[in-house]
Amino acid sequence: MTPHFHILHQSPWLPPGLAVGMERIHSRLRMDLGAFSPWMSKERISLYVYRDLPSYVQGEFNPPPWSNGVAVYDRKAVAIPAMKETSQMLRILSHETTHLLFVSYFRERKRDPPRWLNEGLAMVEEAESRERPESSLWYENMVEMKPAAWLPMARFFAISPTEDLHDDKAQVAGWYVQAYSVIHFLVRQHTNLQFKSFCAHLRDGKTVPEALWLVFRYRSVGDFERKWRLWLADPVHRRRVGALRASRASGGRR
User: What does DSSP assign to residue 15?
Assistant: First the structure.
């Protein structure tokens, strides 16, 4: 038991640093998502840590066998198999806990969030902190993406990757990087209040173009795409990744 998690684990001991790491994640998510899920400051989230992948797949939540973690909305719970690296577990737990908090908000109106919004936000929250977005591999992938590879924004908003991209692995991977990038831009280049208002409009049934105008005053999806691409072209992104790679090569940590 920790202040914000009820942790159940099959192995005798938790992986070192997991409980402390989860409390650190909770603190960060409360800053970003507390307005969506005010209950998170008072109620514990249940965390199930299975012994290994087979135990996880065969466990009570019946997760997809390819998954590394799953959010269980009706139980306010997250389940995950144990892994070699605690850091990897924490990234996945941050991702799935974001899904738990964010989807629960939309389901109060019997809706699910758009796929790009739900996945993009969960990927953004994998980073160690707001100040170190480059700590996420998604950020590195964003920097390496060629401008011509991005989907036109109107099409991007409209598709589900697994259904509409016909299992084209390269296109699906690109869609996920774009989802990360779009949400990073919306969340980190605007205020938390603006992002909350944007999601509230979508939850109430507004279209994406309507919500973009009402909250951010983007005149159209094309206008939003132009501003997003200008932000992408900022050399600060490549400098961040370059500094991180140099630090890794020298064996240090920024």
Answer: P
Residue 38 CB: number of other CB atoms within 10 A? 12
Beta carbons of 223 and 213 less than 8 angstroms apart:
no
For residue 245, CA distances in Å to 73, 107, 250 come to 38, 40, 9
Share of the chain above pLDDT 90, in %: 77
Core vs surface per residue 167-176: b (16+ CB within 10 A) or e:
eeeeeeebbb
In the sheet with 5-9, reading across from the earlier edge strand, the strands are 5-9, 45-50, 77-81, 70-72
Closest CA to 80 of 51, 108, 103, 110: 51
Query: The pTM is what?
Result: 0.91
Token readout for 29 is: 């998510």
* pLDDT per position as a tens digit, 50-60: 999 999 999 99
